[in-house]
Specification:
The complex is a heterodimer of chains A (303) and B (216). Chain A contains 6 helices and 11 strands. Chain A is of the alpha+beta class and 303 residues long. In chain A, strand 7 and strand 8 form a beta hairpin. The termini of chain A are far apart. At the A-B interface, helix 1 of A face helix 4 of B.
Chain lengths: 303, 216
């Protein structure tokens, strides 16, 4: 009996000493580890708050979507979210920032490979502009045609909002599923200065052959694609567009080509210089090049 | 001279991985690149030296009945402490090795040396034994890793674990001719088996001829 107690005591002392040593090492390494956790995100955090002072916060997120919470000294909070959208092999990673008052003041994608032109619309200005009007008391919109991606993003936003409210001791907001919303089409006036697109017109009777710089030649990285000028055949009658067809497409496949689709081009029929037309979200440059061509043809016809 | 013999034992004669078949699990799992091998090797060397030293120091006061639990508590504490240090100062190694650093606790090499050597020898010899065995383990890991990395990816590289700076990078096999099987566990088993067989053959060839005749 006495021996058993002795043995137990010995083991207990060894364990206590080991525990003490571990506590000491932990007190040295914990601050370094914490500092490093921020250092890894510093670059991303600075996209939202340049020159901010960041501090990583401990948090508990039931959804598991929120991967990091950072307090920005005197400005607000940043939540890093990882969520799976339509592309199951590459999760969506983004950061959303709340001001101390609870307004959403930043939304930044860090990684996403959602379908180009469909899910990727969630990461364009059209979506984030709407989001930046929201607060910690709102529910967030999903997008028609990009339901899976936007729902995944909204789940993370809801989790971030709930955490923000928990951290600040505010009332929990009930999550209500929102009807998907259409992104509002952006209207553009035909008659404006498109000179950067450098539209060149060749006239043949009432048809105007226009070639124009698109995304590729203005902004594109030519190491991936062989970018050339876009070329359109435009017919004009009475100062109005009678028809417009694509001759050569020189921009990025699967992105720019949404803006040279015949259904998009047909909206120009019967338009004059002073009309407004839709812009294709996510293919702004290419649709601008179409509008620039139309304007150039109309101007040539007016001379 | 005897010390030298003890120290070098870990390389060929009693190589923990190829000779004693200890610590195979983590060896197979992490031997995908030279960086991982060196990181794991350094961690194991540190744990071995410190645990051998502590256990040797305490060899006269540890009651025989509970020596194994005491060893385990000591080893676990050392491993955890070293894991925290690696996490703090070599984050890239920590991320690459993940759970295998914690698993050093149950790596048979450590407990094996504590029981077989440190509990019977003085502190200096025990630390030397730890260093020798650790280097032997690292040497085996590096061999497997280099073979797997070169055949599997065609590249051999080394980065500084403290700063993440690339020290050197060399493409040995062109991209189109790499054998990616070697980056998987199949490649690990294959490489391990061949190297272990080679070492066994070498050890056989060292044995005196007369002894072999005697066996016949």
């Amino acid at each position: 009996m006495k021996k058993t107690v002795q043995l137990m005591l010995f083991l207990a002392i060894v364990s206590a000493i080991a525990g003490g040593i571990l506590g000491y090492v932990n007190s040295i390494t914990a601050p370094v580890i914490e500092k490093m956790a921020i250092a890894a995100e510093q670059k991303n955090l600075e996209l939202l708050f340049p020159n901010g002072e960041f501090k990583a916060l401990e948090f508990k997120d039931e959804t598991g979507l929120v991967k990091g919470v950072y307090q920005v000294e005197g400005q607000g909070y940043v939540f890093k979210v990882e969520t799976v959208g339509y592309n199951s092999s590459t999760p969506i990673v983004y950061m959303v920032a709340f001001s101390n008052e609870g307004n959403i003041i930043g939304f930044k994608e860090l990684q996403q490979q959602e379908t180009n032109g469909i899910g990727s619309r969630v990461f364009t200005d059209e979506y984030s502009q709407g989001l930046l009007k929201k607060t910690n008391k709102d529910n967030y919109d999903t997008l028609t045609g990009a339901t899976v991606t936007s729902t995944a993003v909204v789940k993370g936003l809801n989790a971030s909002r709930d955490l923000f409210n928990t951290i600040n001791g505010l009332e929990k907001v009930e999550t209500v599923e929102q009807e998907p919303k259409e992104v509002q089409a952006v209207k553009v006036l035909i008659n404006q200065d498109w000179s950067v697109y450098d539209a060149q017109v060749t006239v043949e009777g009432s048809t105007y052959q226009v070639n124009v710089k698109g995304y590729g030649l203005l902004e594109g990285d030519s190491s991936h694609f062989d970018y050339v000028r876009n070329e359109f055949m435009i017919e004009i009658e009475d100062q109005k567009i009678k028809s417009i067809t694509l001759v050569t497409f020189g921009d990025t496949p699967n992105i720019g080509d949404k803006a040279v689709d015949q259904t998009y081009l047909d909206q120009f029929i019967d338009k004059t210089m002073d009309d407004e037309v839709d812009l294709v979200t996510g293919a702004t440059y290419t649709s601008n090049s179409v509008i620039a061509s139309v304007l150039a043809a109309l101007q040539a016809a007016g001379q | 001279m005897n010390r030298m013999k003890n120290f070098t034992a870990g390389f060929i004669r009693e190589n923990p991985v190829f000779g004693l078949y200890l610590g195979i699990c983590s060896t197979l799992a992490i031997s995908t690149s030279l960086n991982n091998a060196l990181g794991m090797g350094i961690a194991v060397i540190l744990v071995l030296i410190v645990s051998n030293a502590v256990i040797s120091l305490m060899r006269n006061i540890i009651p025989d009945d509970i020596r194994i639990p005491v060893y385990i508590v000591i080893i676990a504490a050392i491993v955890k402490a070293i894991e925290m240090l690696i996490h703090a100062y070599m984050p890239s190694i920590y991320n690459a090795l993940g759970v295998f650093i914690q698993l050093i606790v149950v790596n048979c090499i450590i407990l094996g040396r504590a029981e077989a050597f440190a509990s019977k020898n003085n502190v200096f010899d025990s630390m030397l034994d730890g260093l020798g065995m650790g280097l032997g383990y690292t040497f085996s890991l590096v061999m497997i890793s280099v073979i797997r990395q070169v055949l599997g990816t065609g590249i051999i590289d080394l980065t500084n674990p403290m700063t993440d700076q690339l020290i050197f990078q060399l493409r040995i096999i062109p991209e189109n001719y790499k054998i990616s099987m070697f980056t998987t566990s199949t490649g690990a088993f294959l490489t391990f088996a061949l190297l272990a067989a080679a070492l066994a053959a070498y050890k056989n060839s060292l044995e005196p001829k007369t002894k072999k005749k005697g066996v016949k």
